[in-house]
Amino acid sequence: MPDIKDMDFSSHKLPSLSQVGEELKELWGMALPITAMNWLVFIRAVVSVLFLGRLGSLELAGGALSIGFTNITGYSVLVGLASGLEPVCSQAYGNKNWDLLSLSLQRMIVILFLAIIPISLLWINLESIMVFMGQDENITAMAATYTIYSLPDLLTNTLLQPLRVFLRSQQVTKPMMWCSFVAVMFHVPLNYLLVIKMGMGMPGVAMASVVCNLNMVVLIVGYVWVSGRWEMRWTGGIGVLCGGIGPLLRLAVPSCLGICLEWWWYEIVIVMAGYLENPTLAVAATGILIQTTSMMYTVGNELGAGKPYKAKLAAMVALGCAFFIGIINVTWTVILRDRWAGLFTKDDLVKALVASVLPIIGLCELGNCPQTTGCGILRGTARPVIGARVNLGSFYFVGTPVAVGLAFGLNIGFSGLWFGLLSAQVACAVSILYYVLVRTDWEAEAMKAKKLTTLELSSCNGGTQKSDEETERFLDNVL
User: Fold this and answer.
1) pLDDT tens digit string along 152-190?
2) Per its UniProt entry, which superkingdom is the organism in (predicted)?
3) Which CA distances in Å does 57 have to 18, 131, 142, 354?
């Protein structure tokens, strides 16, 4: 008897309860360690904000502005580009194309290394950019200091982000969770040492965050090396490595845009908060509210294995779980609205601002969880352009006019910005779910996955220029 989890099911029949149960078990077996890892990363960010808040409202506002700027111009780009590995690596893993797995990781590291060069120049010039945009000079000076000390983190993330996707695509999640746990475990004492004992203030907070990420990279690289999951495969030499960068970019750039367009909007809220009547309080409160996390699932492994309807089942189960998580987020934001900000700051005015908006954030997450999962499904099926278009329309043609109109036009102020986010999330969730539930042909997606990995396999094995051209034409049709 074949194993239930290795069986596909017919498009004309509903999955059995045993198949749903097995998929749920498999999904949570992979998702729980990822969720735990995300919470650990979230805790690291919370610790940084906590120490900034203890330094004062100005330091908290400056740190929040810096975090927003570095997310917009740096981290979101690196995470977005690295997400281009998801359809290739997960489908290659399902198709047992080990050469493609290894080469794709190497290619993405090269891409990210080139990307951090212009990003570094932007970070160095943060102060002049923010002053030109009309931001408060005192807040901007603090933000510039934090950003300069965060520069080494760019180099760290050129390895960290691709490695996370590389391992997640192979369902290797527990080792990443434990590596993150060990790294974050030292984050609090390191902050205490640098900020309190050595009196380094804001630079100490930034340096502690950099060291925490560096520890994660060292631990994950150590695991990958010892476990033998990554062998250096230079089958075709440097020509094959660089020759495949173009096709990978064809997937990475739309994936990057899809993630960045949403991520940028969240961080642009920080900049808009700087134009409100009391910018220090507004930016500080925004810095607390922006520290949130969400779940994302992909179905690339099932597509690569040639089981389209099992991939569909994985997508449906993931969406159901996402709605459940969204309901939990709404519940805790309402219950803890008056206490949450007290974890970050002692400023009563900042606490009041956070409490007034936190339930709105909970409602946003009710849409954000299935929307984020849906975007992950689109990336897993090598359709990142759809996600990018939806995010562009939702956040910039729906959310932005609503936020600006309410906050500044109708003088609602701080809460108006977050009602803009709520309108964007509603539009985005409805659009993404339409494409996933109505417009996805799972048989066709499985065929595309097989063709993509087949074309790339010929390239990995020293394929000719003709195979590269075939890959380009295929990606033209996919994208």
Assistant:
1) 999 999 999 999 888 887 878 788 888 888 888 888 899
2) Eukaryota
3) 54, 19, 11, 14
pLDDT in tens, 343-402: 666 777 777 777 777 788 778 777 777 777 777 777 666 677 787 888 889 888 998 899
Q: For the chain, give the secondary structure using H, E and C.
A: CCCHHHCCCCCCCCCCHHHHHHHHHHHHHHHHHHHHHHHHHHHHHHHHHHHHHHHCHHHHHHHHHHHHHHHHHHHHHHHHHHCCHHHHHHHHHHCCCHHHHHHHHHHHHHHHHHHHHHHHHHHHCHHHHHHHCCCCHHHHHHHHHHHHHHCHHHHHHHHHHHHHHHHHCCCCCHHHHHHHHHHHHCHHHHHHHHHHHCCCCHHHHHHHHHHHHHHHHHHHHHHHHHHCCCCCCCCCHHHHHHHCHHHHHHHHHHHHHHHHHHHHHHHHHHHHHCCCCCHHHHHHHHHHHCCCCCCCCCCHHHHHCCCHHHHHHHHHHHHHHHHHHHHHHHHHHHHCCCCHHHHCCCCHHHHHHHHHHHHHHHHHHHHHHHHHHHHHHHHHCCCHHHHHHHHHHHHHHHHHHHHHHHHHHCCCCHHHHHHHHHHHHHHHHHHHHHHHHCCCCHHHHHHHHHHHHHHHHHHHCCCCHHHHHHHHHHHHHHC
- Mean local confidence (pLDDT), 243-268: 77
pLDDT at 340: 67
Question: 464: left (phi > 0), else alpha (psi -120 to 50), else beta?
Answer: beta
Is 411 exposed, middle or buried (CB count within 10 Å of its CB: 0-12, 13-18, 19+)?
exposed
